[in-house]
Specification:
The protein is an alpha/beta fold and 330 residues long. The chain has eight helices and six strands. A six-stranded mixed beta sheet has the order 2-1-3-6-4-5. It is globular, with a radius of gyration of 41 Å.
């Protein structure tokens, strides 16, 4: 009887004594927490076939290119320029006063008395305000310390200095742009400098404006000669305009300037020329052109370049080109 009671309580409270506890089933490992997706870096780009162009061998203006026998990529398009003849102005015939003043005027008593009224000067119609389209970076090239860039001595001992000519043309242009209201930036206002190639480009590229920028570099030309004290051959004369090879906008800009320079000055049309060697038109971050306005080592043409009226016509040509682009865009 006692044994049955013991077995009853053993079954009631956990089974038989001394039986081993069955092992617990294994707990499965928790599912791994997905990590955020981090894309693997793209494979490095294969090297380009063409190496970046170097600035080695860069020059400052067209005269340096003419003196370089290795210059390549020059294209002349004189036949594509539209040369517009200036209209002749017919002088007005003198006006003959036919008013008869000898007949006396009889005033009847009943006639009203006429009182002369003060003359009223009609007001001039207000000129429409120019809507600025571009900022023109005007580059006058060389400074006083640039080696060369001067004519041989005249019999009087005088010389033509290109730095002075370039700055004079730019000053004349600026006066008109101020009057009209065209936006501009004078890249090198100082005189006591040299070619300053990188500095000129850096200034133009860094200049802050809300308008798109265009770059025009203004020069006089020189042809190869026996030495800096010898005049060039008589055939080295005229005007040409340079742009960066392959730039369609540069070619269009250069064509507009070349057209007006030839029209205003009557210089020999040497056409458009392109190159990859002119530092300022290669490295500026905007459409650029470089004008060469006559030859200062041509004995007769340099005399013209020293005349005030010729310089004004060169400045007027640049102004006309700027206003055409301002009106029509590029």
């Amino acid at each position: 009887m006692l044994q049955k009671l013991i077995e009853f309580f053993q079954n009631l409270f956990g089974g038989k004594k001394n039986e081993p506890t069955p092992p617990r089933p294994p707990v499965p490992d928790p599912a791994p927490i997905p990590s955020p997706h981090i894309p693997s870096p793209p494979p490095p780009k294969p090297p380009t076939e063409e190496e970046p162009e170097s600035d080695e061998g860069m020059v400052s203006d067209g005269s340096d290119l003419l003196a370089d026998p290795d210059t390549i990529g020059t294209v002349v398009f004189p036949e594509e320029l539209e040369i517009v003849e200036a209209e002749e102005v017919t002088p007005l015939e003198p006006i003959i006063d036919t008013t008869i003043t000898d007949v006396p005027v009889v005033v009847q008593p009943d006639d009203p008395v006429l009182v002369d009224e003060p003359e009223v000067t009609p007001e001039e119609p207000e000129r429409p305000k120019h809507e600025k389209r571009y900022t023109w970076c005007l580059d006058n090239g060389h400074g006083r310390f640039t080696a060369g860039k001067r004519s041989p001595k005249f019999e009087s001992g005088d010389r033509f200095f290109e730095y002075e000519f370039n700055r004079d043309i730019v000053k004349r242009i600026i006066r008109k742009l101020d009057e009209v209201g065209v936006d501009y930036f004078n890249v090198v206002p100082e005189v006591d400098t040299d070619n300053f190639l990188k500095g000129r480009v850096d200034r133009a590229n860094a200049y802050q404006t809300d308008l798109p920028k265009l770059f025009v570099s203004i020069h006089a030309n020189a042809a190869p000669s026996q030495s800096s004290e010898h005049w060039a051959v008589p055939g080295a004369k005229g005007a040409e305009t340079w742009y960066y090879t392959g730039s369609s906008r540069g070619r269009k800009l250069a064509g507009i300037f070349q057209k007006h320079i030839v029209n205003y000055t009557g210089f020999v049309n040497r056409g458009l020329k392109s190159t990859k060697k002119l530092y300022v038109i290669k490295n500026t971050s905007m459409t650029a052109a470089l004008t060469e306005n006559g030859f200062y080592n041509h004995k007769k043409e340099v005399v013209e370049l020293m005349k005030d009226e010729v310089r004004q016509s060169i400045a007027d040509a640049h102004i006309a080109a700027i206003l055409e682009v301002e009106k029509n865009g590029l």
